[in-house]
């Protein structure tokens, strides 16, 4: 499969955010990644999932949602990475950029969020219901999305490790708020970071199938 990879700078409000963009030939959709607290666009887990999505013909965007200055503050206080409103606003701005600039073409947009990034993805999806067509959460904290959960109209898959008991409970509670647009799946034998052999592969496969169903199908309807 022919692919093009590049590092781009995305303007969002008064900041410039670096992102890694990978475009398969004729992508059927594009998935924007929101990493968890303390991580970056170079997260090996998100990169691995992104490669699986690329193999399914989906473009991917991995972006740093905080500026270097904000990262410095975060290292001392751990505040920006838990500012869900800030992160969600940045994601929404990137969704707008993808829709306007169309680096992957006029294709449907999905969001993949990990840990706290999942909460930001859900808040962004609630605010951009006309543009975000699918959401996947990996070991996420959807509960941190608060009141926005009830406003989500986007098909949302919650993936949680079977050994991540506290997060399972939080996702079950969030599922009640999401209603019929949400689905919870538990990956047996996995802890929070899906470090156990084969568990991240399951996440990537299930995320790929979810995005293929909801983005590729949307792309076909547009054509």
Quick summary of this structure?
The chain is of the alpha/beta class and 223 residues long. The protein is 40% helix and 26% strand.
Structural commentary:
Residues 30-143 form the AB hydrolase-1 domain. Belongs to the AB hydrolase superfamily. FUS2 hydrolase family. This protein has 223 residues and is α/β, with parallel strands linked by helices. It has a single domain (3-222), classed as 3-Layer(aba) Sandwich (Rossmann fold). It is built from six helices and eight strands, in the order βββαβααβαββαβα. Strands 1-2-4-3-5-6-7-8 form an eight-stranded mixed β-sheet, sandwiched between helices. β7, α5 and β8 form a beta-alpha-beta unit.
What's the structural blueprint in terms of helices and strands?
Blueprint: E1 3-12, E2 15-24, E3 29-34, H1 44-55, E4 58-63, H2 68-77, H3 84-101, E5 109-114, H4 116-127, E6 132-138, E7 156-161, H5 165-178, E8 182-187, H6 199-222
Helix pairs in contact: 1-6, 3-4
